[in-house]
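From the methods appendix. Each design record in this collection lists the discretized structure first, followed by the designed amino acid sequence. Records were kept in a plain field format so they could be parsed without special tools. The example shown here is representative of the layout used throughout.

RECORD:
C-ALPHA CELLS (354 positions):
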C-alpha cells in the first residue's frame, strides 16, 4: 500500500504523548490504557492507508483514458467471483454470496465490425496491488496488435478498502476470480474468439496464470509467465518476516509454512506441473531482486522432470531486475518482442509484430 511519511510522524508524536501520559499516571490500569490507545492508533493508521489507496486508485483510473484512450475503448466493470474463502462467520447472512470485484477491459478502437479478436487475460502482480497505468505501455503494445484485454482487480487488490483487501486468497480463489473475468468477457463481447484466449502475467500474476492454465487447460491457447512466483515454501524461506506475515495473517492462510506445508504446496505452481497441457513460455533473470531466479529454476526443473514441453529463457543480469521486460528501455522491448511473437503463434492477432 501507499505510505506517507506524515503518517509515521503523527504516529511517533502520538506514541510520545501517550508515553508521557502513562508516566504521569502510574499503575497497571494506565499501562493498559496506553496499550489500548496504541492499538486504536494502529487501526486508524491502517484505515487511513486504505483510504489513501482508494484515492490513488480513483486518480489512476482517470489516467487510463489519457494514456491509452486514443487507441482503446477503456471500461471498468463490476462482476462476481466465488464466495469468500475464509469468512469470519461461515453461517452468517451473506457468507456464501459471490464476492464482487472490478475488472478492466480494453478493446481496440479500430476493431473491424465483423472481426473476431483474440483475448489476453492479464492479472496484475503484487501480494496486495492493483491494475494501474504502470501497465499502460504493455496495454498499448497489445492493443496495437489487435488484442482485446481483460485485467481483473481480483480479491485482495488494493484501492477498494480494507474489507476487500482482507479477502485475499493467494493462489486460491483469486485464480477463480480471474477465470470468472475471462468467462464474463466471452459472455459479454460477441467479437471475442473463445478459441484464441491467452494468459499473460508477471510475478504474482505469473503464478495466477500458471494456476489458471493448470486448472482450465482446454480454455487457453497459450500462457506466458514472467518472473513467476513458483514455490511459496521456498519463497517464504528467503523473504523477511513482514512478507511472511502477509500469508499467516488470520484473514488469509492463517498458518505459517511450518504449520501447514501442504496448504502452501496447494497454492504453488511448482507442485502442479503435471497438469500443464498448454503452450507455455517462461522468462526470468539472474538478478531478480523479488522472485529469486532459484525459485523459477525450481519450476523449470519440475516441468522438465514431468516431461512437459515448454519454452523458457533465463536472462543474465538483465537491466531492471524483476521488471526487466516491462520497462521502457531497448533490452526490455527486445524481451517483450519475444513474448509478443510467442503469443502471435497461437493467437493470430490481426496485426502481429514484425
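DESIGN:
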Amino acid at each position: 500500500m501507499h505510505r506517507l511519511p506524515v503518517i509515521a510522524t503523527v504516529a511517533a508524536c502520538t506514541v510520545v504523548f501517550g508515553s508521557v501520559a502513562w508516566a504521569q499516571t502510574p499503575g497497571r490500569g494506565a499501562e493498559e490504557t496506553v496499550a489500548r490507545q496504541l492499538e486504536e492508533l494502529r487501526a486508524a493508521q491502517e484505515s487511513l492507508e486504505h483510504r489513501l489507496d482508494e484515492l490513488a486508485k480513483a486518480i489512476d483510473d482517470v489516467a487510463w483514458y489519457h494514456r491509452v484512450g486514443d487507441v482503446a475503448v477503456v471500461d471498468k466493470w463490476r462482476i462476481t467471483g466465488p464466495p469468500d474463502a475464509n469468512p469470519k462467520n461461515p453461517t452468517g447472512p451473506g457468507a456464501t454470496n459471490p464476492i464482487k470485484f472490478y475488472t478492466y477491459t480494453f478493446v481496440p478502437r479500430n476493431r473491424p465490425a465483423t472481426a473476431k479478436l483474440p483475448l489476453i487475460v492479464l492479472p496484475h502482480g503484487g501480494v496486495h496491488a492493483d491494475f494501474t497505468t504502470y501497465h499502460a505501455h504493455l496495454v498499448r503494445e497489445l492493443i496495437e496488435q489487435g488484442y482485446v484485454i481483460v485485467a481483473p482487480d481480483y480479491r485482495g487488490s488494493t484501492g477498494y478498502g480494507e474489507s476487500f483487501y482482507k479477502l485475499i486468497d493467494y493462489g486460491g480463489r483469486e485464480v477463480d476470480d480471474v477465470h470468472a473475468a475471462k468467462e464474463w468477457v466471452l459472455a459479454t463481447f460477441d467479437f471475442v474468439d473463445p478459441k484464441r484466449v491467452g494468459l499473460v502475467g508477471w510475478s504474482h500474476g505469473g503464478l495466477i496464470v500458471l494456476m489458471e492454465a493448470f486448472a482450465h487447460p482446454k480454455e487457453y491457447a497459450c500462457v506466458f509467465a514472467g518472473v513467476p512466483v513458483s514455490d511459496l515454501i521456498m519463497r517464504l524461506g528467503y523473504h523477511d518476516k513482514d512478507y511472511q506475515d502477509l500469508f499467516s495473517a488470520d484473514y488469509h492462510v492463517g498458518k505459517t509454512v511450518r504449520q501447514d506445508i501442504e496448504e502452501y504446496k496447494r497454492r504453488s505452481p511448482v507442485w502442479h506441473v503435471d497438469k500443464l497441457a498448454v503452450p507455455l513460455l517462461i522468462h526470468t533473470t539472474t538478478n531478480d531482486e523479488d522472485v529469486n531466479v532459484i525459485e523459477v529454476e525450481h519450476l523449470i526443473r519440475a516441468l522438465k522432470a514431468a516431461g512437459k514441453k515448454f519454452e523458457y529463457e533465463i536472462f543474465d543480469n538483465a537491466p531492471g531486475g524483476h521488471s526487466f521486460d516491462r520497462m521502457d528501455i531497448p533490452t526490455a522491448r527486445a524481451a517483450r518482442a519475444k513474448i509478443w511473437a510467442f503469443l502471435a503463434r497461437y493467437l493470430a492477432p490481426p496485426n502481429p509484430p514484425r
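APPENDIX NOTE: The mean pLDDT is 91.
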